[in-house]
Amino acid sequence: MRVVLLGTAAGGGVPQWDCACGPCAKARAGELPARTQDCLAVSGDGANWWLLNASPDIRAQITTTPELAPGPGPRDTPVRGVLLTDAEVDHALGLLTLRGAPGLRVHAPATVLHALAGTRAALDRYAEWTWRQVEPEQAFPLAGGLVVTAFPISGKRPRYAAGSPVEGHWVVAYRLFDPRTGGIVLYAPCLADWPPGFDDLVAEADVVLLDGTFHAPAEMGAATGRGGGQSAMGHLPITRSLPELRRHPRVRRVYTHLNNTNPVLDPASAEHAELREAGVEVLPDGACLDV
Ligand code: MLT
Ligand code: MN
Ligand code: ZN
């Protein structure tokens, strides 16, 4: 399978429009690469492509990715649909950009489909889409030959859904399996802790794309003067996930969903050097992996 990292930043991107923290200032000055919001494209056959999350930057992400160019007919697209890991704004807002393309399929957990009810009702006015509920640990095929399985990760819900009566798994990880190559990719951009059984998922994967939102537990407050919410955001900091990843040197390990306050954005930082020493990667937007 081919995986394209369309975007590698957490909500807001790098730089974020209203942020003058260290990394945002450096990105604005061209001293660090800019990053768009977390989103992947995957394909088993190079002809049928699936988006994992639909970021607010999806238009620019698609128009700069040759694999996703429309054709051969004037309104044909190789994009078959979207798989959502959660209902966060930075992972779902791009659905509205895709409005009007007929026949897209969106796979998501029941919680996420419920949270997006209003968005879905609006989108269904533009084109007929299929909305499919993803059941935990039940594999299903995607057009193009990949087989996907969702694994429950946490009950962390988006702020706008705080009052929702729906209980259950608000965040999942996806395991993508290519029966032709035997390759396995694990995509987990929102990891609140290291859940039971997660080690086994990492161990069997060839590539893991993991939540690298924050490097340290109180990083956002230190960088922006607005601490408050970091611990409630449901993102295990790298200081806690890196020791877990060190147990899996055979696996290609990549941090994504990087917040703009994260010092690993700077290749010259000590924090980035520590990742290099552990063999864990931070890749730029547009990076391609063949698995
Ligand atoms: C998150 O990843 O925790 C959310 O995207 C935060 C947000 O943008 O509200
Ligand atoms: Mn996010
Ligand atoms: Zn910033």
UniProtKB/TrEMBL annotation:
Q: Which NCBIfam families match?
A: PQQ_syn_pqqB
Q: Where is the Metallo-beta-lactamase domain?
A: 48-257
Q: What is this protein called?
A: Coenzyme PQQ synthesis protein B
Pfam families this protein is in? Lactamase_B_2
Keyword check for Transport:
yes
Instruction: Report the source organism.
Output: Saccharothrix algeriensis
Q: Which gene encodes it?
A: pqqB
Pathway assignment: Cofactor biosynthesis; pyrroloquinoline quinone biosynthesis
This chain's function reads: May be involved in the transport of PQQ or its precursor to the periplasm.
